[in-house]
Amino acid sequence: MPLGKATAKAIQAAVNSFHRSSPEIQSSYLRDGEGTQIVLVAPDEVAMRAAYNDAWARGLPCVLYPEALGIGPCIRECVEDIVAQFPLYGVTA
Hints:
Blueprint: H1 3-19, H2 23-32, E1 36-40, H3 45-57, E2 62-64, E3 69-74, H4 80-83
C-alpha cells in the first residue's frame, strides 16, 4: 500500500476508534494524553478480523476497515498481545 494511502487509513481508523471510546476516556486522552492508540495493517483479512474480534471481546474501542484496524485509546497492556503478532508498517522479516 502506498505511504499516502496507509497514512490516510491510519488517521481514519485512529479518529473513528477514538470516537467509539467513552466520553471519560476521550476526556482523559485529550487532557492528559493517557492511553494508547494503535492502527494495524494485517497481512490478510482473516488476521485483521481475528484481531478486531479479540479487541471487541475485551471491550476496547475499535473500528475495522478493509485495510486498517484502529484500537484505542486504551491501556497499552490491554493490546500488547494483539499487536505483537503484526509487523511494523513497512518492515518485513
